[in-house]
């Protein structure tokens, strides 16, 4: 008979609320969620401390691992170690900025071969949709990608070109036929202007106005409505797009939307000139916009919060010159997402259960990761032990990200991940990795 483990927690997030529970685990799967004081029945008992909360492992569906090709930016070993340290037990890797990008089955298999044996958490993969590869989408879908990523403007890397409107329509028609999810970087290149060289954050922000997102999201909604395709808008920054998204969903368009920790934590008025560690695209906007994003989360208009972990080497951030035009646009935050969001959420009176819904349950459900993102009978026993009242100061040198560049450096965050379990056992970063490479429909 298989050995069972009984995890007792006076506080746990189960079914969208906090409760005192005992979670019974066997063969890596949750086989029971009962009363806190239920008899152990021969199981090995793990008792959480009074200041700890048991959470499901987080699911981050927006992670740029960059291996192969740009492994000096990040790799599967470093990214998944960071994920585990941050309570994330499943990631889905973006089709760029690796070389080759994941736009063919051959490129997907090359990436899977590189990732094999390196993953400390479970890893799935997005396919890429670029001009000329509509014929490749069916093969990628059959090979198990979780959907397809595209850009509506220059992606920033030449090997992953954007889709003009006619190509986007053709790709959406194909993903509708396949029943696949299309995830879209929605900014309109005709509205975005060239950022002037210099240290001014305001100048960078002005180069990518809300209208760029609003117009591109309008195209996404119109194309999804016409094609019947399933769509997802990544890293929403502009709250002004929320009413259109709400109206489209009310009219039956199958569209979801995410935002990211940096849009919920920072606001443009406090970003000093030259702070290129905070450059991302779309950009961090003002305080009123941040408030509106929080309100949209609370109201269900934004579905989830994921990292958009987009690292690079330190030199590409151009902290030496502070030039926003030259700096790489991306924020590395895979290890920090939960404490960043929780720090701001608790200040706003948002319960921890809501944060877990946005960062674990909702992303898992949207991409079809059944058995992930919740503590429930039949789910993988992916667990996070979180101390929500413990404060700490971010030291980038102590993070597991490959490059120690972080806009959170020196900031005090509240909430510490103390342990992360993958399929019923604690993840040991000093042991051999045991994460699995997932295919759509595996879990």
Automatic annotation (TrEMBL):
InterPro entries tied to this protein: Allantoinase, Amidohydro-rel, DHOase/Allantoinase_Hydrolase, Metal-dep_hydrolase_composite, Metal_Hydrolase
One family name in Pfam for this protein: Amidohydro_1
Gene Ontology molecular function, alphabetical: allantoinase activity
Gene3D superfamilies: Metal-dependent hydrolases (3.20.20.140)
Signal peptide positions (record): none
The protein, known as: allantoinase
Enzyme class, spelled out: hydrolase
PANTHER family, per the entry: ALLANTOINASE (PTHR43668)
Record bears the keyword Transit peptide: no
UniProt record similarity statement: Belongs to the metallo-dependent hydrolases superfamily. Allantoinase family.
Pathway named in the protein's UniProt entry: Nitrogen metabolism; (S)-allantoin degradation; allantoate from (S)-allantoin: step 1/1
Cofactor(s) needed by this chain: Zn(2+)
SUPFAM superfamilies: Composite domain of metallo-dependent hydrolases (SSF51338), Metallo-dependent hydrolases (SSF51556)
Subunit structure: Homotetramer.
Organism for this UniProt entry: Nocardioides astragali
Domain of life where this protein originates: Bacteria
Domain Amidohydrolase-related: 53-424
EC number: 3.5.2.5
Keyword Membrane: no
Keywords assigned by UniProt, alphabetized: Hydrolase, Metal-binding, Zinc
């Amino acid at each position: 008979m298989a050995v069972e483990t009984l995890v007792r927690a006076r506080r746990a997030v189960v079914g969208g609320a906090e409760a005192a529970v005992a979670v019974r685990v066997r063969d890596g799967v949750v086989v029971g969620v009962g009363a806190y004081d239920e008899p152990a029945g021969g199981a090995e008992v793990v008792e959480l401390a009074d200041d700890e909360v048991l959470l499901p492992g987080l699911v981050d569906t927006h992670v740029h691992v960059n291996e192969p090709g740009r492994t000096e930016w990040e790799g599967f070993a470093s990214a998944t170690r960071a994920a585990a340290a941050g309570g994330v037990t499943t990631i889905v890797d973006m089709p760029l900025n690796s070389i080759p990008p994941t736009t063919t089955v051959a490129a997907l298999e090359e990436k899977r071969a590189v990732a094999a044996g390196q993953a400390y958490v479970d890893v799935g993969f997005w396919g890429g949709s670029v001009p000329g590869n509509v014929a490749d989408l069916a093969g990628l879908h059959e090979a198990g990608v979780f959907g397809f990523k595209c850009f509506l403007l220059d992606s920033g890397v030449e090997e992953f070109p954007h889709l003009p409107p006619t190509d986007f329509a053709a790709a959406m028609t194909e993903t509708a036929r396949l029943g696949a999810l299309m995830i879209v970087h929605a900014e309109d290149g005709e509205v975005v202007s060239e950022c002037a060289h210099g240290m001014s954050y305001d100048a960078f922000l002005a180069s990518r106005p809300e209208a760029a997102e609003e117009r591109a999201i309008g195209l996404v909604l119109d194309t999804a409505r016409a094609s019947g395709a399933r769509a997802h808008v990544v890293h929403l920054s502009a709250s002004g797009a929320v009413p259109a998204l709400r109206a489209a969903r009310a009219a039956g368009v199958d569209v979801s939307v995410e935002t990211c920790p940096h849009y919920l934590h920072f606001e443009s008025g406090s970003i000093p000139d030259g702070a290129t560690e905070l450059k991302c695209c779309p950009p961090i906007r003002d305080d009123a916009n941040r408030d509106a994003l929080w309100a949209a989360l609370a109201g269900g208009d934004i579905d989830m919060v994921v990292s958009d972990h987009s690292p690079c080497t330190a030199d590409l951030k151009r902290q030496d010159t502070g030039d926003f035009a030259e700096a790489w646009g991306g924020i590395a935050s895979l290890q920090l997402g939960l404490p960043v969001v929780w720090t701001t959420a608790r200040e706003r009176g948002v319960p921890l259960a809501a944060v877990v819904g946005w960062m674990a349950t909702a992303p898992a459900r949207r991409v079809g990761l059944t058995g992930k993102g919740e503590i429930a009978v039949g789910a993988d026993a992916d667990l996070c032990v979180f101390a929500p009242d413990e404060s700490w100061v971010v030291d980038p040198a102590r993070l597991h990200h490959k490059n120690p560049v972080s806009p959170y450096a020196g900031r005090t965050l509240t909430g510490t991940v103390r342990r992360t379990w993958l399929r019923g056992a604690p993840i040991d970063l000093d042991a051999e990795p045991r994460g699995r490479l997932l295919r759509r429909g595996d879990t």
